[in-house]
Write a structure and sequence with these properties.
Layout lengths: L3 H21 L3 H23 L10 H28 L5 H12 L7 H9 L4 H27 L6 H9 L2 H12 L6 H26 L8 H21 L8 H11 L5 H9 L4 H25 L1
Helix pairs in contact: 1-9, 2-8, 2-9, 3-4, 3-6, 3-10, 4-6, 4-10, 4-13, 5-6, 5-11, 6-7, 6-11, 6-12, 10-11, 10-13, 12-13
Length: 305
Amino acid sequence: MTNILELYVKLVGLVLVGFLLGRKLPGSVPTRLAQFLFWVGVPIGIVAFLRKADLSGQIWIAPAIAYLAILLGAFLAWIGIKGQAYFTNTMPQQPTQGSFILASMVGNTGYLGYPIALAMVGQKYFAWALFYDLLGSLFGAYAFGVAIAVRFGGGVQNYWQITKAIFINPALWSFGFGLLFRQVTIPPAVEFFLDKFAWSTVALSLMLIGMRLSNLNSWRSLPRAGMSLGIKMLIVPLILGSILPLFGLTGATAQVIVLQMGMPPAFSTLVIAETFNLDRDLAVTALAAGSMVLLITLPIWLWLF
């Protein structure tokens, strides 16, 4: 287990390196790195980490709680929209409502959630973070999230692109392969290389987040983004985290779930916002601000849970 100071040095350091590189390198570099991680790095990392993960216990509760967090976030966002309309006598435009709800419900439980879970609770409990992300957040974003986008968005809806995002997602396929590969005995040298490669993809994922953040320069929607982050990163983890013992989840397992619930908005919210003509400015601002808020909320969840 890594202490919080060491986590911050690694987390902030790698994201900062990526941020600086994103300012200097050609715009094609983050895109190619993202493609490498999407098709090769993250899938192999999932297979490697699954070999040492503990799959015993009530691990299937993780995606169920992910859906609860997504639905609660969306409900609270809807309440927030109605409250704003009541007190200000102005209803936000529908594209803004859609982005507000998306930013309140779907978190970056993959590229950001994986390394944080691994650093704080180790590989033994990594499967909880994995199940939460791949069987919860992924389908929540590209199923319920798309339904929200259709309701509040406009323009052309590319349903094939969204369907492909789910079923051709290599992380999802590597998850199934990794479960089978756990039973296969491999030479120690191969095991060593696989482990080092997996941890290298974690570092590259954090650097990629920095590169993407270096291109997010919009802050005009900060007040409304702050409301969505309050729902996503504070209220939802606090409410659901407090009832985790009712599901039999305590200790490190509860900590992983709370950390995943407290992740900032996912990059998929921006993808969906752009695809369905929602408020891109709000989505961008929530992504950038959420990554900074995480530095404040992380010790809170580690202390409470």
